[in-house]
Amino acid sequence: MPVQTRRRSTSTESAGPHAGRTGRQPGNRSGGKGGAGKRPRRKDPVWARTMVILGALLMMVSGTTIVGSKWFIAQATSGIEQSNLLGTAGKTDAEGGDSLEGPIDLLLLGIDHRSSWAESDTRADTIIILHIPATHDQAYLISLPRDTEVEVPPFPASGYGGGVAKATEAFFHGAQNGAGHAGGAQLMAKTIKNMSGISFDGAAIINFSGFKSVIDSLGSIPICVDEDTPSTHMTLVDGEPMWNADAEKVYGDKQQVVHKKGCREMEGWAALDFSRQRYGLANGDYDRQKNQQKLIKGMAKKAMSAGVMTNPLKISELTKAAGEAFVLDVGDADVADFVFTMRGVAANDLVMLRTNGGSFNGNDSGREVLDPLSMEMFQAVKNDALDDFVLANPTVLAGQQ
């Protein structure tokens, strides 16, 4: 039975990118049963390390005895940093607020950010809506093209006055003038809500390079490559993978990294590099979206395998890596309650969906425009009718793995 938690307040606007949705500072949330109370906030929050948490957290909700315990989930998630990533894009009381009994919608934002870069110099390269129906036994991943033309609303926290832009740029505009990655996520969430009509229960950000430690703790993850995929980012130097810029500075036998067609177990560096490629692929960014969905699904499959879930040392390594890699926003709900509610979703229950039939639909400005069927899909998410919509419109299905 899903856990009921407090509903989200509808009476307040965000007090800035680092404030809780009801005015509390991050780390001082107390909602939900078994709340952890005050959690010290890191001096350097590293927003770049967050996002979909799905791949790492599904390992805690697979239904086995050890992970079926809310106590275990609470322990495993205690190190995950929380902050306000949704701003005013969270569900209102009329939409269910912080109740976990109905459908759950999460906004997952992938960024490529290095620790030496300023937080203001960041765009969202990956935008995924995760929808879990009220039955809590399935999950849908809908990728939104990064170049989709959107109306970005004004955002006082960063000084942005609003305008038309690519979806990926909404994050950039929200991160300016000290608003940081939290501000970027809030403006992106509001932009997507205005465009799609979908309000969110939670959000996460992930720097895909930050996922490497999570995948390494798993050893490898299963991924199927649909076509030979040359890397534009990495080179093998004497058999060791290196960033192209670093490879240029050293001597040795150099070969381009090529991810060969076929299914295999991939190490962390290879899985992340594969998921970032789009140039040279038959469907460009749409193939990248599909491959990033495969990355998430592969992590969930491996994390929930018997070899991981029956090994206390593996579980400890994985939860430690997840705690260091993610920042999460679940409103006033308790993280353990939130994860426990999703315990019925298994890796094989992740269904990957696409917009525009998986083909670029551009306008005169070279930006992506969503077709009517894609907008109907968002409406189906809002109405929790996505199951029936997919059955009636199988073209929205991306390649499954």
Give a short synopsis of this structure.
With 401 residues, the chain is an alpha+beta fold. Helix content is 30%, strand content 19%.
Describe the model.
By secondary structure, this protein is α+β, with helices and mostly antiparallel strands. It has a domain at 47-217 and 309-396: 3-Layer(aba) Sandwich (Aminopeptidase). The protein is 30% helix and 19% strand. The chain has 13 helices and 14 strands. It has a seven-stranded mixed sheet with strand order 1-13-7-2-3-4-14, sandwiched between helices. It has a three-stranded antiparallel sheet with strand order 10-9-11. A two-stranded antiparallel ribbon has the order 5-6. Helix 7 packs antiparallel against helix 8 (285-303). The relative contact order is 0.19.
Give descriptors for this structure:
401 residues, alpha+beta, Aminopeptidase, 7-stranded mixed sheet, 3-stranded antiparallel sheet, 13 helices, 14 strands, 30% helix, globular, disordered N terminus
What is the topology?
Layout: H1 54-57, H2 70-77, E1 81-82, E2 104-111, E3 124-132, E4 139-144, E5 149-152, E6 163-166, H3 167-174, H4 180-196, E7 202-207, H5 212-218, E8 221-225, E9 229-237, E10 240-243, H6 244-247, E11 254-259, E12 262-266, H7 268-276, H8 285-303, H9 306-309, H10 312-325, E13 327-329, H11 335-341, E14 350-354, H12 372-382, H13 386-392
Parallel strand pairs: 1-13, 2-7, 4-14
Antiparallel strand pairs: 2-3, 3-4, 5-6, 7-13, 8-12, 9-10, 9-11
Helix pairs in contact: 2-11, 3-4, 5-10, 7-8
